[in-house]
Amino acid sequence: MNGYHGKLLRINLSTRLVSEETLNPTYLRDYIGGSGLGLRLMYDEVPPETDPLSIEAKIFITTGPVTATSMGTAGRYQVVFKSPLTGILCDSSSGGHWGSEFKQTGYDVLVIEGKATEPVYINIKDGNTEIRSASHLTGKDTYETQNLLQAEVADDMARVLCIGPGGETGALFSCMVNDTGRAPARGGPGAVMGRKNLKAIVVRGTKKVELADPDGFKRYALEINKRNGRGDETKMLRIFGTPEVMDNNWQVGDIPVKNWSVGSYEKICVSLGGKKMYDTMLVPHNACHFCPIACSRWVKIETQAYKMDGPGPEYESIGALGSMTMVDDLEAVSYANHLCNIYGIDTISCGSSIAFAMECYEKGLITKEDTGGLELTWGNAQVLIQLVEMIGKGEGFGKFVGQGTRLMANQIGNDSINFAVQVKGLELPMHDARAFFSWASNYATGPRGGCHLHGMSAIYENKQDPIPEWGLMGYYPRHSNEGKASITRFAQNWSHILSSMVLCYFATFSQKPSDLASLINYATGWSLSPMDLLLIGDRINALHRAYNYRCGIRRSDDTLSKRSLTPLEAGGAAGVVPDLEFQLNEYYQIRGWEDDGKPSKQVLLDLGLADVANDLYPV
Questions:
Q1: Is the model's pTM score more than 0.90?
Q2: 119: number of CA atoms within 13 Å, CB side?
Q3: Does domain 241-426 have CATH number 1.10.569.10?
C-alpha cells in the first residue's frame, strides 16, 4: 500500500488490550489520511452524544501519505477527538518530528480508547507496544517528562508526546506537547488525554514508507523544498518567523488589542514583533522535519524574572498573551508562552481567557475577592505570569479561567458573552474579521469553531485570481462582502487537504492544487487531479458538519460575538464590519446546506456519503 503501511494500532487503556487492524483502502482514497481519515473513523466509532471526557471518548492520532518522507514539514500529525471546550468534533495539528517517528513504527493511525486505572504511558518501538506505569511522572511538566522518558527508554532519538499539569488538572484548553514546544493545541486534547490517565506516548521507528515512485517524489519534493528555502513567499517567515505578522499587519487593523476593543497601533505591535525578537533574544534553532523555512523561534532571555532558553512564541501566542492583555514586554510574553508550553495549555485560548477576565475586572463584573487577590489590570505582566501558572496548575482563580471564555461568560453573566470573543466555544485566533471580511464566514462556519488553520481565507483577499486551478478568479477587496463565501469554501478545502496529507500550511504558500495532487500521486500511485482534491475537501467538510449537526450545531451557532461585529474607532479597520448574514446566505448556497445548517441529502449522496445521509435524513 504505497504511501501507507496500511495499519491501525488500537490501544484500550481499560483492558490493556493492544491490537492491529488493516485500514480500509477506500477510506484512504476518499479521505487521503490525517484529519480526513480521522474524522471518518470518529464518525464511525464515536456517537455524537458521547461526553468528551467520558470513558467512551476516543482519541485518533493520524498521519498521511507524505508523512516521514523527504517533503519538508512531513513530520506532522493530526489529533481527532471530541472537544471538552466546545462539545463538538475537533481536529488539531502539530509539527516537529513526532509524526514521522510514529509512522516509522509501522502504523498510520493510533486509536486510544478506555481509561487507565492509574497514570500510564505508552511505548511503541517498531511495532512493539507496551503500556507502562507513569505514576512517577505525575505533576511533571512537558519538558521534564520528555527528558525523563527518553532516559527511561534509553534512546535520545525517541520522540515523546505528552501532557503537562494542565492536562492532568483538566484545563479545558490544555494541549498535548511534542518535540519541546510543538503542540496540537486547540480544543483541549490534553484534557481528554489527562482524563484517560495517559501521560505520554513514546515512539521510535525504523520502518521505511514505500512510495509508488520514490525517485519522482524525491525530485518533486526537493523542488518544493528549494522553492520554500529561497522564494519570496516564505522569505519573511525564514528570517523573522510568524512574529513578523506583528510588525506588518497592524497597519491594516489585523492585530487584536485589549480584548479586540481597540484598533491596532504601531507602538505595542513593534514592541512585540519579530524584528524586536530577532534583534534582542533570537538564537540559532532547529526546524521541523526537513523544513527549509525554519519559522519556529528559539529564544534566550537573561533577565532573572523571565530567564529561559527555549522555544519562543509564535505570532498567535504573542497576540493572545501580549497585545490582547496590553502587556508590551516581549520578554514577559515569551516567558508566559514558555509556561504554556511546559504546563501544556493552548496559548490562544489562554491569553484570550485572561484578556476576557481583565475586561470583566475592569467593568467590575469580577473583583479581587473573586480572583484571590489578583489585580487583573491591563498591561500587568506580573499578573499575566501568575495567572498562566495558576491555570496550568489548576489552582484558585486559574481553575475558573481554565474553562475558556464561553463558560466563564455563562457564569459571570451581565452580558459578558458579548465580549467573549469565540465561536462555538473556541476562542478566535489573532486575526480580525473587521480587517479582512472573509474571516467572518470562515470563523462562523469553521469546522471546529473559530479557527484560521481551517482556512487562511485572508491570504486570498486583495489578490488577483487567487486559485485559478480551482476556479477562484477575480479580485476580492478586503472590505467587500462579495465572493467572500467562495473564498471561505476554497480556503477551508485547501486546509482539509493539507491536514489530510499531512502538511504545514506555510510550506504550501508557493504551491498550487496540482502540486499537492502530484505529491499524493507520486507517493500512492493514484492519479488524482486538482478537481479531485476539491471534491475530497467538500466531502471532508460535509462529514465534519454532519457530525457537528448531530451534536446539536445549527445555523444560529454560525455566528460571531457582538464584539467582533462592532466597528473599531481607530486603526486600519476603523468604522467597518463584515455583513455576516450576507456571507452566510452565500456560503450555505455554495455548500448546499439546508436553512438550519444541515448538509442537504443530495449533497451528501453526491459526495459518496450515503450512510451519513441516512443518519441525517432517516426514512
A1: yes
A2: 18
A3: yes
Query: φ, ψ for residue 451 (rounded to 5)?
Result: -155, 140
How many Cβ atoms are within 10 Å of 111's Cβ, its own excluded?
Answer: 22
Per-residue pLDDT, averaged over 424-440, amounts to 98
Residue in 498, 417, 408 with CA at minimum distance from that of residue 452:
498
Give pLDDT tens digits for 213-225.
Answer: 999 999 999 999 9
Cβ(520)–Cβ(224) below 8 Å: no
For residue 546, the SS3 value is: helix
Q: What single-letter amino acid sits at 124?
A: I
The angle subtended at Cα 252 by Cα 249 and Cα 258, nearest 5°, is: 75
Q: What is the DSSP letter of 87?
A: S
Do residues 272 and 216 make contact, with C-beta atoms less than 8 angstroms apart?
no
**Could you confirm whether domain 7-204 is CATH 3.60.9.10?**
yes
The angle formed by the CA atoms of residues 543, 548 and 554, to the nearest 5 degrees, is 120
394 and 402 in contact (C-beta within 8 Å)?
yes
Task: Give the N- to C-terminal CA distance of the chain in Å, as an integer.
Answer: 38
pLDDT digits (tens, 9 = 90+) for 463-484: 999 999 999 999 999 999 999 9
Element (H, E) at 17: strand 17-22
Domain ranges of the chain: 7-204, 241-426, 458-559+579-616
Q: How many CA atoms lie within 13 Å of 313's alpha carbon, on the beta-carbon side? A: 33
Supply the DSSP symbol for 448: T
Tally Cβ neighbours within 10 Å of residue 280: 12
Please state, in angstroms and as integers, the Cα–Cα distance from residue 563 to each residue in 315, 320, 446, following that order.
Answer: 22, 16, 18
Q: E strand or H helix at 78, and its extent?
A: strand 77-82
Where on the phi/psi map is residue 255: left (φ > 0), alpha (ψ -120 to 50), or beta? beta
Task: Specify the fold of 458-559+579-616.
Answer: 1.10.599
